[in-house]
Amino acid sequence: MIKKIGVLTSGGDAPGMNAAVRAVVRAAISKGMEVYGVRRGYNGLINGDIMKMDERSVTDIIHQGGTVLYTARCLEFKTKEGIEKAKAKCDELGIEGLVVIGGDGSFRGAADLSAMGVLCVGLPGTIDNDISCTDYTIGFDTAMNTAMELVDKLRDTSQSHDRISVVEVMGRGAGHIAVNTGIACGATDIITKEVPYDLDRIAATMLEKKARGKQNFVVIVAEGIGHSQEIAAELEKKTGIEARATILGHVQRGGNPTVRDRVEATRMGYYAVELLEKGIGNRVVGIKDSKIVDYDIQEALSMKKPYEVDLHRIAEEIAF
Ligand code: ADP
Ligand code: F6P
């Protein structure tokens, strides 16, 4: 029976991470385990920046964005020495299991630490929804709602000026935020790296739509494409319609988590503790068809996530 576990957040923060931390801490305590919060990702494990948590440590955090444990990228943890230091710290404190809330990079670290004998369970935490073994990642819903609200505001001014508004949303290499936000905002075009695009064709269809009475246009560009300023300038040149580019940026990572993020983070956090309680590690937890599932970390990392091609096609087909 595992008696002491740790929890950390790693990589980019995401709204809902606090709800996951709360679930892990409270589930562990309710199952009679001691639980430690590790600050600033794997750095805290290496430097011993670790605090014992009790039920009150996670009071009033379920509604907060960010992460009370702080987060960081830790280069030292990618080295053998770094992992050995982390393992030694776990041994010193008697930490036998660890819940790692983060993305694929963080799970690679969790696999390395699992191989050293610390049972690690990964929870998918990133606004990008780019983790293959799960339909859903903590933070995705809040980030999309934030992006949608901001695009709604841009639309007001774009409409008043008869302009094209080119909006770049986050997502690192993936277009999941872009396509869903695009649908939700009624964007005329969505540009992601998963679907080939052609600015000449986009400009030509804008002019056709303008001839039929459409006066303003919202184009959502995924971060992976970048160049949103250049795209706006090109579209303005090709159509003669004034265009402005907006990069939404890190504001998409903040804010109070939505119901979905709080609920899914809680379900997955609780499940992670159940795995550790059974002595199971080297797993990533996810959600498939609304059910909680878990996979071997290496298997999870080798999976490929399909892009919402149908959603992308539908969005463009009905945007006239
Ligand atoms: P994410 O977890 O969001 O994908 P990163 O790729 O930045 O974010 O990874 C977060 C942290 O996970 C890194 O700073 C590092 O400490 C650890 N990590 C990333 N890749 C590896 C790896 N290949 N081996 C061990 N640890 C890694
Ligand atoms: O992975 C989450 C994310 O916000 C990506 O969408 C973005 O590419 C990246 O993190 C930005 O990272 P940073 O906070 O280091 O600028």
Can you offer a commentary on this structure?
The structure is a single chain. This protein is of the alpha/beta class. It folds into 2 domains: 4-139 and 257-302, Rossmann fold; 140-253, Phosphofructokinase domain (Rossmann fold), CATH 3.40.50.460. It has 11 helices and 11 strands. α1 (17-30) runs parallel beside α9 (259-277), α5 (140-160) packs across α6 (176-184) and α6 (176-184) runs parallel beside α11 (309-317). The model has no long low-confidence stretch (mean pLDDT 97). Adenosine-5'-diphosphate (ADP) binds at residues 10-12, 41-42, 73-74, 77-78, 102-106, 108-109, 112, 126.
Which helices and strands occur, and which strands form pairs?
Blueprint: E1 4-9, H1 17-30, E2 34-38, H2 42-47, E3 50-53, H3 80-93, E4 97-102, H4 104-115, E5 119-124, H5 140-160, E6 164-169, H6 176-184, E7 189-191, H7 199-211, E8 217-222, H8 228-239, E9 243-247, H9 259-277, E10 283-288, E11 291-296, H10 297-302, H11 309-317
This protein binds adenosine-5'-diphosphate and 6-O-phosphono-beta-D-fructofuranose.
Write out key terms for the chains shown.
four-stranded parallel sheet; alpha/beta; Rossmann fold; 320 residues; seven-stranded mixed sheet; binds adenosine-5'-diphosphate
Enumerate the spans where pLDDT stays under 50 for 5 or more consecutive residues: none
Instruction: From the alpha carbons, calculate the radius of gyration and give it in angstroms.
Output: 22 Å
User: What's the number of extended β-strand segments?
Assistant: 11
Largest sheet: 7 strands, mixed
Globally, the shape reads elongated
Helix content: 40-55%
Q: What would you call the structural class?
A: alpha/beta
